[in-house]
User: Which sequence fits this backbone?
């Protein structure tokens, strides 16, 4: 049966945003905390919530089987969930949120060996489903990461120039709609969400992280800003070329890198497309 002694917060930490906004950096820092665990990106959260909702007449076992099949797809997760699956099949009155909580709690405990862990998720695509996720986890804490859209686009173009140039308007829409999700949630439940600007983080990492940990109700821990190899490997930094800057100490020297790399006509196009939002959040 499910271990009832293992504390389940059911109040996870979600890192939302447009992507290429520092979510891996923030996750690697938070993972250094003894009471936080954020695994590699995985689309299992919106999949589970949607699948549970649109299949109300399927039996409990078949729905769980389908969810765990999705988890077993190739990803950076390397956890044996077979025992948990069997325990969940025997349980009654489960909803999507409780199932996800058990899955993430299992991963967290296996990784850190601590029963009192606040688990989290940093998958950027989750932002689109923010309201749906908030409904399943009404006590969750949301860190919304915001970064200058010119830096976001420049970073994407570094990853694959041709692919993202063909999708430039979509990526600008994604930045804009992500920000809209933040603004809607901050009106609906301001105590549940906090804004974290990438530029402020890299300019004053210790003060910013202390502030966010205090907001989460956790104490600041020494060496939390040290990017350990185990955290880097967990989040895929050892494999991804565009993440290699995370191996060095947090620095602001890359903040304006886009100025020398982004073609001027693209920079102007971005500013014209997102002028209202950029001015509001002081991206000149």
Assistant:
């Amino acid at each position: 049966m499910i271990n009832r002694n293992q504390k389940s917060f059911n109040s996870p930490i979600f890192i939302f945003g447009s992507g290429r906004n520092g979510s891996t950096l923030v996750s690697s820092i938070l993972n250094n905390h003894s009471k936080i665990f954020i695994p590699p990106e995985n689309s299992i959260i919106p999949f589970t919530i949607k699948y549970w909702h649109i299949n109300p007449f399927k039996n409990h076992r078949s729905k769980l089987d389908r969810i765990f099949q999705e988890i077993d797809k190739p990803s950076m997760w390397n956890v044996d969930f077979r025992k948990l699956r069997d325990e969940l099949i025997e349980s009654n009155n489960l909803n999507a949120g409780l199932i996800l909580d058990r899955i993430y709690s299992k991963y967290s405990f296996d990784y850190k060996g601590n029963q009192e862990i606040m688990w989290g998720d940093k998958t950027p695509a989750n932002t689109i489903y923010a309201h749906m996720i908030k409904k399943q986890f009404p006590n969750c804490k949301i860190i919304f990461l915001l970064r200058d859209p010119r830096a976001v686009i420049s970073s994407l173009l570094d990853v694959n120039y041709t692919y993202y140039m063909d999708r430039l308007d979509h990526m600008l829409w994604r930045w804009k709609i992500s920000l809209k999700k933040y603004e809607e949630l901050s009106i609906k439940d301001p105590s549940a969400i906090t804004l974290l600007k990438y530029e402020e983080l890299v300019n004053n990492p210790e003060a910013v992280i202390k502030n966010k940990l205090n907001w989460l109700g956790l104490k600041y821990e020494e060496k939390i800003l040290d990017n350990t190899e185990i955290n880097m490997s967990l989040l895929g930094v050892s494999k991804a070329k565009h993440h290699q800057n995370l191996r060095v100490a947090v620095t602001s020297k890359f903040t304006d890198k886009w100025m020398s790399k982004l073609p001027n006509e693209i920079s102007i196009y971005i500013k014209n497309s997102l002028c209202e939002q950029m001015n509001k959040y002081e991206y000149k």
Remarks:
- The beta strands are 13-16, 36-37, 118-121, 141-146, 193-197.
- The chain is about 50% helix and 5% strand.
- The longest strand covers residues 141-146.
